[in-house]
Amino acid sequence: MLDLLRKIVQEAGNAKDLKTALGIIVLRIKETMSVQVCSVYLLDAQTDQYILMATEGLNKRATGKVHLQSDEGLVGFVGTRQEPLNLPNASDHPQYRYFPNTGEERYSAFLGTPIIHNGQVLGVLVVQQKERREFSEEEVSFIVTMGTQLATVIAQAEASGSVTSKYAQEVRFTGVIGAKGAAIGEAVVVLPPADLEAVPDRKTKEIQVELDLFNEAIETVRKNIQKTSTKLAKQLRPDELALFDAYLLMLDDASLMGDIEKTIRNGQWAQGAIREVISQYVHRFEAMDDSYLKERATDIKDIGRRLLAQLQKQDHENTEYPANTILVSEEISPTMLSEVPEEKLVGIVSLSGSSNSHVAILARAMGIPAVMGVVGLPYRKMDGLKIIVNGFFGEVIINPSNELCQYFLNLAEEEKQLLASLSILRDLPCITPDGHKLSLWVNTGLQGDVGKAQQRGAEGVGLYRTEVPFMMSSSFPSEKEQTTIYREQLEAFYPLPVTMRTLDIGGDKSLPYFPIEEENPFLGWRGIRITLDHPEIFILQIRAMLKANENLENLRILLPMISSIHEVEHALRLINRAWYEIKEEGVNVPMPPIGLMIEVPSAVFLTATLAKEVDFISVGSNDLTQYLLAVDRNNARVADLYNYYHPAVLHSLYKTVKDCHAQSKPISICGEMAGDPIAAILLMAMGFDSLSMNATNLPKVKWILRQLSFDKSKEILKDVLKQDDPRVVYSIINLELSRLGFKSLISSEKKFN
Ligand code: PEP
Ligand code: MG
What we know:
Elements: H1 2-13, H2 18-33, E1 37-44, E2 49-56, E3 67-69, H3 73-81, E4 85-87, E5 109-117, E6 120-129, H4 137-164, E7 171-174, E8 176-179, E9 182-190, H5 207-232, H6 238-252, H7 254-265, H8 270-286, H9 291-318, E10 325-329, H10 334-339, E11 345-350, H11 358-366, E12 370-372, E13 386-390, E14 395-398, H12 402-421, E15 439-444, H13 449-456, E16 461-465, H14 467-472, H15 479-493, E17 498-501, H16 528-533, H17 535-548, E18 555-559, H18 565-584, E19 594-598, H19 601-605, H20 607-613, E20 616-619, H21 621-629, H22 647-662, E21 667-669, H23 677-686, E22 690-693, H24 698-705, H25 710-720, H26 726-739, H27 743-750
Parallel strand pairs: 9-10, 10-11, 11-12, 15-16, 15-22, 16-17, 17-18, 18-19, 19-20, 20-21, 21-22
Antiparallel strand pairs: 1-2, 1-6, 2-3, 4-5, 5-6, 7-14, 8-12, 9-13, 13-14
Helix pairs in contact: 1-2, 1-4, 2-4, 5-6, 5-9, 7-8, 8-9, 15-17, 17-18, 23-24, 23-25
Bound molecules: phosphoenolpyruvate and magnesium ion.
The site of phosphoenolpyruvate (PEP) has 11 residues, from strand 16 and helix 21.
């Protein structure tokens, strides 16, 4: 059953448009279930009507013509109740409605199931039969499963159809806010390497160039295969070596390669042609019953991937980014960001991830509007299209009208002016009207962060994410390379303190040269857990930090993801060892202040004990929120549950501050919450000694804290801590702020929340 299902969905998924896909589905279901009718009705959201879109068994001419109100007939009944309906005799049902042009009167048995995607009814799938009978449980479960699979096929096809429509209509897709702001530009789709399915369609006029590239790729792949085959000749059995011959034959295969050439000649670029033709062949082979031939599908896919990898290698070297590049990808990586010249990158769109994914954090630091988690975005069809990244609402608009572009240009300008008006605060301290002083620090990682932090008047670096330079490198950077990088950072801020966090990889931060495959990476091998298991990496990094600090002495070291005391003790032992080592080598630096991050719930409860071991504490509210609320910070589907105004988060933070101060140790916070001007009020009231944030938001935070008294902030906090709902918390603060006359900030922040 599962196999059948997969086959049908695959076949429909490969169809060129929605109409063909639905045609395939109704035909296959009708055959598989041996029923007389299978039909799909889709709900038109604008008219609120179901339309018969495909049928096998009813009068085909009725397709597109039968319209029902969303609550009309059995179809409407299934859609409204969002449940399957199994009737031995449909006409007995009070909701039954007769449509003369469908030939429906001849069918008694009716089984319908809703097609639901992301909580929304897209349509209804129906099978019917002449004889009176109740469908079996197995049949019901087949049709229900089919409905769920169909939902994805329909959603994808609708999305991609809307984008490629020749009328270039405006289409909107919703995701979550990654970085606030608006950008208008040209979509540049970046592909995961050698992923056939991810290759977008791209029209080309330079057919000969594409043909040449394709032929060059064939030649290189052929040579590589021959080379590997020769190299392995002694180690492999003849039947295993024969595989290489099979691959070479495929490269010479006139029909396979000829079809790709033909597709290029029709105007598709070489990579797209490979995807198109290889998937047709794979599909054809997978559908064969002969198990030997079926297996060949894998080989064809493999040869396709090899050709693609080769083409992408050439492509990569020649990428020309337009002046207003909006990077669009399934999953944007920091490396992709670094490949676009800084002055050309204006926006970011990622299909995966959420507001608190690390790429979103980087985007905020860079001040580039970003929308994350745009599930279902037909990005393969978007290359070269004009789009708007609406980072205020978490929305991507394709083919926007001129009026809309103008509206967003104005919005972006307003935001720029707001920031410019705050630049006068640059050299002023962050002191409340009643004299409470708070330090505002920045988070850094990227090269550009330094200049921006200085322009905004940061008083130090509260978090330098050392993993960022590691991610940009093609292997672990050597001690010397690291020393140079860290030295630059320390010198840039000297004499202000720079808090360097030891390597925090795992979760959504991976190094291409140190892959970690885990089912549940955020609960897995992450942060300090990895570096303690790899003292050679940890010690090397500490040695580099210490050496970089020579004669500067503004370094602070921070340990991430601490969940138990033994991790701190272990890390401190290694840090001491590194310190003695370099001392013996003649580098004389004092031991810098060492701190640890509270970002795991267990650490909240151990704050008092942990604080005794170190010189300072820094709270990582991004992870703390994720772990306290059991909401993956990277998962767009649960993004609306991720909320640092949640009472559990607020109470944990407050407890942490009190327990830390009881040990007379300073405490800061370096999660994104610290850069939210409204949350910053609560954090100040709780007693945090410093807030560390992205440089972009620092002026706004300073602006509000310089106007609100410390006493008032404590009153607001007191009120807020009595609440049990994050939404109430948020509105209490907003209400209070508007009562105090902070309207402009609220309206600017409101756009974002
Ligand atoms: C945090 O978790 O709040 C934090 C600052 O660390 P990161 O976002 O890098 O995980
Ligand atoms: Mg963290």
